[in-house]
Every structure is written in C-alpha cells, then in structure tokens.
TrEMBL record:
Keywords attached to this entry: Signal, Transport
Pfam families given in the database record: SBP_bac_1
Family stated for the protein in its record: Belongs to the bacterial solute-binding protein 1 family.
Major localization class: other
Subcellular localization(s) per the UniProt record: Cell envelope
Native species: Actinokineospora fastidiosa
Signal among keywords: yes
Protein name as catalogued: Carbohydrate ABC transporter, N-acetylglucosamine/diacetylchitobiose-binding protein
PANTHER family: ARABINOSE-BINDING PROTEIN-RELATED, SN-GLYCEROL-3-PHOSPHATE-BINDING PERIPLASMIC PROTEIN UGPB
A Gene Ontology term for the protein's cellular component: cell envelope
Domain of life: Bacteria
Residues making up the signal peptide according to the UniProt record: 1-25
Amino acid sequence: MTFNRRRMLHGLGGLAVLTAVPACAFGGNEAETPTGPTGDAGPENPFGVAEDAALEVVIFKGGLGDAYATEVHEPMYAQRFPGAKVEHVATQQIAQTLQPRFAGGDVPDVIANSGTDLMDLGALVDANQLLDLTPLFDAPAIDDPKVKVRDRVVNGSIEAGLVGGKPHALMYVYTAYGLWYDAKLFEANGWQPAQTWADFDALCAKIKAKGLHPFAYPGKNAAYYQYWSILVSAAKIGGNKVLVDIDNLVDGAWTADPVKQSAAAWAEIGAKYLDKSYEGLTHTEVQTAQNQGRIGFFPCGSWLENEQKDQTPDSFEYAMCPLPSVTGGDAMPYAAIRTAAGEGYIVPSQAKNSAGGLEYLRIMLSHEGARGFTERTGSITIVKGAADGLPLSPGNKSVAAAQSAAGDNIVTYNAFENWYKELETELRAKTNALMFGRITADQFCAEMQAKADAVKADSSIPKQQRNG
C-alpha cells in the first residue's frame, strides 16, 4: 500500500500566524558538519554517537500528536544508548519557541518542523544552520545493514526535502489530499462525489437545500487548505508544469490560463456556497462542525481522520475523493490526486549531539519505527512496506482506493511553500480575499504574480529551482 503525505507542511494544530524569518534571525555558522561528542563509529553506530550524550527532541504536537515520539522513537533511541538522557519537548509554536534558541546557539538535536508556525527552511539553510542529511540516506538501514537507508524509502521522498540542492529535511509522512466528506451522510441522502465541475455545483446545491454548508475551509489559520485546492485544480487543468513554474518564479506563472480558470471556478463555489463565518474559524472549529453534520465537503490531507478521532461520532465515517475536473479538456483525469511526502524533520548543525540527531532519524526510518508511527497516528510513512498488514481506517481505505484509481496521475507538491515564506503568507491572504468575495480571479492572479515578481527581484532571498 502506498500513501503519500506531504506538507510538507502540515499536521496542523498551531494557531500562530506564519511569518517569514530572515536568515540573520537564526545566527550563522561556517559548516554543515555534525557537532558534539562522538563515540566509536561502526555498522551499528554509523554516525559515531557518544553512548552517554544527551538528546533533545522537539516535536510539533498537532494532528499527529506526540505519542509516536514518546512511545516509539525515543524509547528505541534510549534502548540503543541506555546511558543517554532523552529530553522531549512538545509545542504547537515551533518558530516562536526555537528562533531565539537558534539566534543564541542553543539548539535541540532533532526538530519536527511543522504546523502553522514552522521555521523557514530556506533561511535556515542560507545561514548554514541545518545538517545536510545525505549521510543519513547513505547510512546502512537498521533492518538490513547491507541496504542503504535511501533504498528503504519510496521514490521522490528524499527529493521532497531538498533545499539548495541537498536534502536538509526528512519528509517522513506520506499524504494524500482531496475533498473529505461523511460517507454515511452521503449514502443516506443518495449523494455521490461529483466528477465534473457542473455536477459538483449541482451537488453543492443539493447539500445546501438540505440545510448544510456544502463546502468550508478554515480561513483564520489554515487558508492553505484552500489554496492547495486552487493549485491542484490548476495542475489538473494544465498539468504539473503549472506548479513547477510557480515554484521556479517563472514570469507569468500565476497569470497562466490554468491558474485563472481554477481561481474563477473556486471563487464561484465560494460565492454560492461558502458561509462568511468560516473566514474567522480555525481548522479545529471547522472540522468539528463537519463531524456534527453541518458541512458537506472539507479540503484537507489524510491526517484529518486521526486528528479528529476524539471528536468523530460513530455515525460519521470519513472518506476522501479527488477534486472534480474543471473543464472537459483538463490535462489530468478526474482521478488525479495530490500526494507528497511531508512533515519535515531536521537536525541543526550546531546541535550538541547532532550525530545523535541523525541516528534518531535513522531509527524513525526503520521498519519498527515507521510501523509504530503508523499505529499511533494512522498516517503512513515513506518507509517501504512498514504499514503492510496493519488494519486501515475507513478514511485510509478511501485514500488507498483513490490512490489506486489515480495510478501515475499524481499532482505534484509545491515547494514555494517552504522556499519563499513571504509568497506563501501572501497566498493565504489572497486566497481568503478570493473565496470570500473581496477580489476577482483576475485580481487574485495579478496580485500573486506581483508578489512572486517581488520575491524574484529581491536579491536578499535565496532562490531555489526544481525540475519536476
């Protein structure tokens, strides 16, 4: 079974506003080599971790919780290094918590850099604050020392963590994205997910006639849930090159016809079916409203079901479907979905035990570490076969079916979200303005293009490039 999780950004839960942090705010150092005490390196200890060196792990406690760290990965590390003290820190405000520590040179050894308040990877790399993880992927796998770690993970997952051409983040979770709904509610009303935009519009009208809000997203703290939808639809219209051009700051990428068509289609859904109140609500509030039977469709990634497990009644059954085709001539079929590796884990180059940080990530990439993660979060990792045989929830079953139907028709991720925080922050604001009727699709595209042009022209912002 192959799921894909990216977002790369998001297991969500934090409510802070994402801000771009300049590289100088993180301080700087001259190298990206491991620091701290070292022990004897060998096949069982490829990074030469000192047996008694303490390890500090900072985990974003959002939709995935942190039991996977406290009950699986940290005990596995302690078992390998019984003389080491493992300190666990859980927070929903990664940047707010850690930016002062980076500036002061007092950094943890492993960080789950995720949530709304994540740190700017580009700025960290520009300041030489992160280890290049190439040695991790070239190290022997815990399960089979004859095999490199890189050969134990699914294709494309290492590339998802590239910044400056090197893997500076371990994107650990395999996520699928789409429209989430209550399968039991839909069955009771005779509703089926729509494959065309006209049918989607008609279905939303039926849902509205039942007294429900047909579509909603959390404008207060997770507008990216909706800009993902706009970008995915644009890619389905024009192909993945649309998204690659946006990442590469290509002139006119935001004003290309597929982006305009997608923005216009989604703006119409916003005008007809999106209640104004959702601009002021958080993701937890909107997700709970869906669990209460008040919302038809909710755009999100496959962590949603686990995040809501304590609020989901027995009468509610999560399912996910692809976004409907916008035009009759879309480049990608209806079944195409966005999948990607996400949830970034990083090792600071100035950590007191950065060798231990690398070893912690190697443990995460073991069969036992990855399987334990899935058992506690319901989310699939990038480790091949680690989740085989585990029982799947209804939501994950629908994701598996959607991914099987998609085949090779996969919408790529967007790297600008990690590369250019100013652009990402602007996109949140413009997405809300578009969906809640303050600007038109043409204005949305023009204003996003203007921001992209400004980022491109700013020589102080390190530029990145991707091929596909």
